[in-house]
């Protein structure tokens, strides 16, 4: 049995559906085992946890009051009159169905379903002229619901771990001991017959007898039992005279009354005798809570709600705990359902994507396969590569995906210059380190089944990439150019090439419009995807088929086609995902084509030489700038600037870092960045994720 769906009307920030006021303002669909609610601050994660607690109650008997501030307030300042929260349970066993029989309904597939509903209404008292809030909890179909009471109510209670809990106090003995509550509900401490004594009661009875015997024996110079007689004498004086010559009160020493509940309240849970920090005690407390989840005879949903689990755990402890919970849920060794909230990128990265529920813009977006366009292989890939750096995308108001270190360093610097600093707009820049954008982009694309009922995920996403088509200057500079030909794979070539590679055509569409200057380059690419070893004849046949005369027109056509295919591949119909392409070659080449050319030259110079400011090195830089200024062809000039990066004589990342520093320090770059045509695609990407349009 598990909580499948939570529906909320007019509770805090969640009102009613924009399409129909009878529909809930928020619908959350949960996985049957593990769920991690993530999102930016004030996205509504705590409201979801509180809605469950208020409706189902908690095993620690926390008291929850609905106050005026819990009622939804619309944009006009009107406060709602009624809150409604609905919890829908599925997966009931026959035994559970028997317990909840009078409240059961059936879902569309004819399976058992339990609907539990909390309503809070403002009721006006005409006599006192005040409003009071009346809360009811019922179960069953809405038109025939009845109060949920007794065992059924108890079984639905959740376990709640608040974010700033004091685990040390929770584990200590006392009247409200959480440890006692946990043990009392464990199968090992349940008594089928109240007249029978639990083994622990027998143990404490024997211990009490030992204590009594101790106080009845001689001790050093006196007799311990005189302590009891002296206490009794005091009591005689404190209270009334003896009745009929008999003392009314008599003292006795015991450890605790021999009643199981009282014994459990006296127990503490410790990590041996070693002093423990708050983090260790929190892990011990969570371990104690898991006792009920491992109870094989436990019935009911057994929901555990944990807010901000990272509050008292360092990142490695968080990671181990989350991995353990997910692994044990998959192996079936831990029962119950976990619903957690977090702000931790470590937790987001270590949680399987299908277990994540993203809370954004008043909607809960489950990331499982049913609701996204992600496929099984995508989940496997993202599980390997979605590290804590990339996981910050779940907490952002906008995301820019880039393919390398240069973009990762330069895009934020350019955003500062155009007055759209990414941090102020809550935008995360994610360097995926390759061109596999499609898998990451699919995180933000919803399935057709989802879009038939719910809104798209409107987080603005910008994919910044390159056409990666080499300019004519590259081929003119190549020593192997020979005959003026270029090798270009077109769509009509795929069937022939796929047969040679022993693969299906559907496996290699990404090869379309790829260009190669030599057969060696062609082979190195084909070998990555081929399942068969191609011989020299196969390569020659492919090369002959895809050979075209090299010209500027060919290169321009390649660039245009590649940009068009990239935009078509990664964009989506909702327009939250857009692609912005360096239309000539790479980012650095676009900068070399732009008015920032000299800034890039300076950055390359500073990285290339240990003493860039020496007279000799300044002379070299001046000569290089003069040489490049003297070139009539702009692409040829840009190629000369870019050449040290292409030949890996300097690090792209180091040059990007140097250029980012120059952009921050030198004032004359601002106007250039804001107006340069070659940098337009970067400006458009930044404006897309920060909201608004550039005024040029």
TrEMBL record:
<dbReference type="InterPro" id="IPR051396">
    <property type="entry name" value="Bact_Antivir_Def_Nuclease"/>
</dbReference>
<dbReference type="InterPro" id="IPR027417">
    <property type="entry name" value="P-loop_NTPase"/>
</dbReference>
<feature type="domain" description="Endonuclease GajA/Old nuclease/RecF-like AAA">
    <location>
        <begin position="1"/>
        <end position="347"/>
    </location>
</feature>
<protein>
    <submittedName>
        <fullName>AAA family ATPase</fullName>
    </submittedName>
</protein>
<dbReference type="Pfam" id="PF13175">
    <property type="entry name" value="AAA_15"/>
</dbReference>
<dbReference type="Pfam" id="PF20469">
    <property type="entry name" value="OLD-like_TOPRIM"/>
</dbReference>
<dbReference type="InterPro" id="IPR034139">
    <property type="entry name" value="TOPRIM_OLD"/>
</dbReference>
<dbReference type="InterPro" id="IPR041685">
    <property type="entry name" value="AAA_GajA/Old/RecF-like"/>
</dbReference>
<feature type="domain" description="OLD protein-like TOPRIM">
    <location>
        <begin position="394"/>
        <end position="468"/>
    </location>
</feature>
């Amino acid at each position: 049995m598990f909580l499948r769906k939570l529906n909320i009307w007019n509770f805090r920030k969640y009102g009613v559906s924009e399409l129909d006021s009878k529909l809930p303002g928020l619908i959350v669909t949960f996985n049957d085992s593990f769920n991690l609610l993530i999102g930016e601050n004030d996205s509504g994660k705590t409201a979801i946890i509180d809605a469950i607690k208020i409706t189902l109650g908690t095993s620690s008997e926390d008291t929850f009051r609905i106050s005026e501030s819990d009622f939804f307030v619309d944009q006009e300042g009107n406060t709602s009159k009624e809150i409604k929260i609905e919890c829908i349970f599925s997966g009931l066993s026959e035994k559970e169905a028997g317990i909840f029989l009078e409240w059961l309904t059936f879902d569309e597939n004819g399976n058992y379903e339990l609907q539990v509903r909390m309503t809070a209404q403002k009721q006006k008292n005409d006599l006192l002229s005040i409003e009071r809030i009346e809360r009811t909890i019922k179960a069953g179909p809405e038109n025939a619901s009845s109060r949920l009471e007794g065992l059924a109510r108890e079984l639905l209670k959740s376990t709640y771990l608040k974010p700033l809990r004091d685990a040390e106090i929770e584990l200590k003995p006392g009247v409200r001991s959480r440890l006692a509550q946990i043990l009392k509900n464990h199968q090992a401490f349940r008594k089928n017959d109240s007249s029978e004594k639990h083994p622990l009661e027998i143990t404490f009875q024997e211990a009490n007898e030992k204590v009594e015997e101790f106080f009845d024996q001689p001790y050093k110079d006196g007799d311990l039992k005189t302590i009891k007689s002296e206490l009794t004498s005091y009591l005689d004086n404190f209270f009334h005279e003896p009745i009929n010559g008999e003392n009314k009160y008599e003292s006795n020493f015991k450890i605790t009354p021999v009643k199981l509940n009282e014994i459990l309240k006296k127990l503490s849970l410790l990590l041996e005798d070693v002093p423990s920090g708050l983090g260790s005690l929190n892990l011990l407390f969570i371990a104690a809570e898991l006792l009920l989840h491992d109870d094989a005879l436990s019935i009911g949903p057994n929901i555990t709600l944990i807010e901000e689990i990272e509050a008292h755990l360092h990142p490695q402890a968080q990671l181990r705990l989350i991995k353990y919970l997910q692994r044990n849920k998959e192996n079936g060794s831990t029962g119950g359902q976990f619903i957690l909230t977090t702000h931790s990128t470590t937790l987001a990265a270590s949680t399987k994507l299908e277990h994540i529920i993203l809370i954004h813009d008043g909607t809960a977006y489950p990331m499982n396969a049913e609701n996204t366009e992600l496929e099984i292989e995508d989940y496997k890939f993202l599980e390997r590569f979605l590290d804590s750096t990339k996981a910050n995308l779940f907490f952002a108001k906008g995301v820019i995906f880039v393919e390398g270190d240069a973009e990762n360093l330069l895009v934020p610097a350019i955003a500062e210059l155009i007055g759209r600093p990414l941090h102020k707009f809550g935008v995360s820049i994610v360097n995926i380190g390759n061109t596999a954008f499609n898998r990451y982009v699919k995180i933000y694309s919803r399935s057709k089944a989802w879009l038939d009922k719910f809104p798209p995920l409107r987080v603005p996403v910008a994919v910044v990439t390159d056409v990666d088509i080499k300019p004519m200057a590259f081929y003119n500079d190549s020593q192997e150019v020979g005959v003026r030909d270029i090798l270009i794979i077109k769509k009509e070539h795929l069937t022939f090439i796929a047969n040679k590679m022993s693969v299906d055509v559907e496996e290699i569409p990404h090869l379309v419009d790829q260009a190669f200057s030599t057969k060696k380059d062609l082979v190195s690419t084909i070998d990555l995807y081929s399942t068969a070893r191609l011989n020299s004849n196969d390569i020659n046949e492919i090369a002959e088929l895809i050979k075209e005369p090299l010209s500027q027109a060919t290169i321009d056509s390649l660039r245009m086609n590649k940009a068009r295919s990239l935009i078509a591949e990664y964009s989506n119909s909702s327009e939250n995902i857009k692609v912005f392409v360096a239309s000539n070659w790479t980012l650095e080449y676009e900068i070399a084509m732009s008015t920032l050319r000299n800034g890039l030259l300076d950055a390359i110079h500073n990285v290339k030489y240990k003493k860039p400011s020496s007279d000799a090195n300044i002379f070299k830089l001046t000569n290089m700038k003069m040489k490049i200024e003297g070139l009539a062809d702009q692409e040829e000039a840009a190629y000369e600037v870019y050449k040290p990066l292409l030949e890996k004589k300097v690090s792209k990342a180091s040059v990007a870092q140097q250029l980012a520093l120059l952009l921050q320090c030198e004032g004359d770059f601002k106007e250039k960045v804001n107006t340069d045509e070659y940098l337009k695609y970067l400006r458009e990407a930044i404006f897309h994720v920060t909201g608004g349009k550039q005024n040029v």
